[in-house]
Amino acid sequence: MSRSTSRSNRDRRIPRRPLLWLAAALLFTLPPMFASLATWVPCLFLLALALKFWMEPRGYRLRFAALKLVLAAVALFAIFASYGSLHGVEQGVSLLVVLMSLKILEAHTAREFQVMVMIGWVLCLCGFFLSQDFAIALCLLIGFALLLVALVQFHRGSSPGAFWPPLGTTGKLLAQAAPLAALLFVLFPRINSSFGFQIRDLRSASLGFSDRLSPGSITSLTDSSTVAFRAEFPDDRTRPRGPMYWRGIVMWHCEGMEWRAPYAPVAISPGSLKPSAPGPHTAGELGRALPAESTSGRAIRQRINIAPHDARWMFALDRPFEVPPRAMLARGNYLWSAQPIRKARRYEVTSSPQVTERELEPLDRREALDVPASISPAVRELAQSWSAQNSNPRAIVNSALQFFRAQGFRYSLSPGEYGKNDLEAFLFHRRVGFCEHYAASFATLMRLAGVPARVVVGYLGGEYNDLGGFVLVRQSDAHAWCEVWLADSGWTRVDPTTVVAPGRASLDLDSFLARNAATGELNTRQNAFVAQLFRSAIFTNVRLAWETLSYEWDTRLLGFDADVQEVFLDSIGIANRGPFFLVVEIVIVAVALLLAYTGWMQLRTRSRRDRARGLYDRFCRKIARLGVRRDPWEGPSDFSRRAAQSLPDEAERIREISNIYIALRYAPESTTILLDRFAKDVSAFPSHSR
Amino acid sequence: MYLSLFHASLFANWAIPADYCAVTDHVDAFVKQICEVIVGKNQAVKLAVACLLARGHLLIEDIPGVGKTTLSQALARSLALAFQRIQFTSDLLPADILGNSIFDRDEQRFVFHRGPLFSQVVLIDEVNRATAKTQSALLEAMEEHHISIDGVTHELLEPFFVIATQNPQHQVGTFPLPESQLDRFLMRIELGVPDRASERAMLLGMDRREMLKELKPVISPRTLVEIQDNVRKVHASPALLDYLQDLLDASRQRHSTGLSPRAGLALLHASQAWALMNGRDMVLPEDIQAVGIPVMAHRLGHDIEQPGKSGRTLADNLLHSVPVP
Question: Measured between CB atoms, does A160 come within 8 Å of chain B?
């Protein structure tokens, strides 16, 4: 009785070292919380951890049930107050974190320590609800492993022991678990949206451009380095030549400086598209504004990994003509997803720059010429002066481009505020703007001059990663350009920005800005030193490698969803025949694995004996080199005595090694530790080299 | 701490458990007492004790006058067991050793009178002086520890231990023991003449007969049974059994009459006893080698293809040619 009391008293305090490991592990579960939960929640968690280290040696802890209940109620209320509801992923995770903080303050027994470790693992899982980023995943993996270390250290008892063994044990455990995890990853049925909540990336949901192109809407994106999507080209070794125009949405509705996409796009069939004949009149201004890429007209297949953005547009190189599943081709020749993209999605699409609609329907023509009545007379006059000069649409386009080139327009990221009716001010007075200003005003002018025109919003360029062989497109690569209808070549891309800022099209925005900054044309946006650092070779390489890893993580691991799994299982001969067969298959595999493991263990026991024998033979050879040869019929004990007599310098070692061998080979039971020690001793023999 | 734990586990295999300590103490005292009587024959004495602990019977072969009978008597007296001595002669009959039924006039029936074999330690002096008929009367008692006579089976008391002495076979008036009889003896040991110093000590010392009378038992019958039980528990690892079987196989390949399975058991039990006497709970190849000649020689000595070689030589060759696996 007294013994058991003293024992439970000893259990009162959690030893310091496991607690340290646990704290370290919990710190690694924090990053996703800081990114997406109300800030006070992870702060409370940190505070609780710090308090624990102060309280534990003093024996303080949260004792009273009433106080605990009150605190839990307060926490619940605080969560309701900061989120406005209690329903949702963030709220649920917050509640878990807050309760874990209270648990940390309360815990004091061995059992509770184990509970804390278990909750820690649940927190790791919750981290994935909040973010599936590669960096976060790495963090959570470390946290996961450290929790295991904490548990191993805890079970080693109160004696401190060495620092490394728990780590070694953990490593071994994880290594043993890895094949099973891989097997489960491949075989475990993926659950498709049967959860009551959507797991999504909260951060990118608010970013990205919208279905409305207003002055300043893209400028606000140029500061964002968030990844929009990544694309690889399965058929090509490198990126396609020429600038990469990534088509996003097409805007039809003109309101002067502001353009808008249709709320519900109309689908068109890919059959209505035709490769346009390259026009013979590509000389002059139009020829320069037309992208060089259009001269090489072959189809390019792309595999695109898009980040969730909560809207339905999907991107493809200009212009897509094959539609991936669960998407359609909208009027204006762009991709439109069947569902809002709430989690990372991977699709394949084929584009060719010369694909366009065969003819312009009268209805479409009317829409493509529609301008608001609020356009000022001066602007109308300008446009009509071009059409009066020459009624050929190509000549009108050239006149407009000539206008932008000759009238001292400037390219700037901070052009100041424009309203939607400020077209006149932009064209005649301020003459400074960003791609969206040029695209919007140019398209409006074209319509006024009687040339059907529309605005395309998407991305231009992107960073090609040689290591991973993919293009990384960030929000800062957002771009807007125009398309005009020419009777002989259909919809033709015209990028007025390239006239104002030559070179923008062939470079990504950052490089373009950097080059201009060097020539003093633009103000540097960044501190020179930081900019230099960012452009240094080593930093670039590290960044590219990291991006590649992150890309692989997104495509290979996160991208392995139910569809990919089914294709994969089909390819290895496990057809999807329903859950019953899957369970049977899993059981068969498990039994087979178990049998293999048993066989391996038996083999190992046998080989252990053989290994001892082999090591002993090596030991005997070593002694023979020192001059004492063992007769084949001589027992180990006799030989040890004889050898020790002849080699008094080594007598001690010889006796010791022989004794271990005898224990290994003839004793009732031997241990692996002993065998390892034997191996070490034999290889260390003789103690000094002669 | 890690290291000390390791050492504990290492020497757990070596540490002799408490009851083993007691066992070796008893055995040491036993051996020491006998060695005081039989001077300079430590190895032979130890072998004899090992034979006793392995529940085997002992055959001592040597010329007269080297102390065969003295050794047997010393063994018997140090054990506190019932002791009988039978002198075998050429006219001895089985009934003389087993006992016979004599008509009791008063009770009007035959009453069985137990012979001298009904004992615990039986010393049979000059076992090869009796005819084969009498020698064979020993077989049942030695192997099965009971005696059947007139249709009744009489159990013998445990432990039962036969020590037989015999003169070398070339002496006049001997009947060589048949192979089946020899196989019943776990060991055959030879004493040989003592070395000079030992002989001097013996010449100067007390009269051996007086010493024998003064011997006190050092092992109680119960302890002896316990020790004998412990002997069978001494661990023989797979590697060791490999070696033992290699020996048996080699003997069968080389000699017309190889070692029998009973000889294999004898070898194992004797080496277990030897290991225990040396304070080990596991048998080493060295143990087999130590008891190999006394256990194997008399079983191999009848090889008609190699008449010139004594069993001793054959056994020795065997031990020096079969490698320890």
Answer: no
